[in-house]
Fold this protein.
Amino acid sequence: MATRSARAVWRGPLFGDQPQDAGDGTVSLDSVGADLRMRWSSRTSEPAGESTPEELVAAALAMDYAQCLTHKLEERGHLARELDVEATLHLELVEPGRHSLTSGSLTVRGVADVPLALFQDLSVIAHKECFLVIALDLPISVRATLAGPGDT
């Protein structure tokens, strides 16, 4: 069994009377020695060089989906030279005082010697079997394209 962990430290109030009075925090990813700064305002407006929990989930979703689609291609005897996956998650105010992830999308651009129709079919199968798509339990669309000749 593999176990992974991260650590978050928050200091101060979530909101302040003035923007400079709001608290802030860091998320530490020990496996890569990264400390990412976060504030509430970065979640609901421009990130200003700070990360957000939603961005970290989107990053995990993009990689999980890329690995799942790679596996589906390999099961059919195909190898992708590259899968460029962008995951987007939407955080919205769903009622006063409560935000929630409401939907998302996966866009994958593949470089592979596989027919487009098969690539798109496998992208949908990978979407249905992707652990984080299942765990998030959100409507998440998927769009898959292959690079054309000379696009690599």
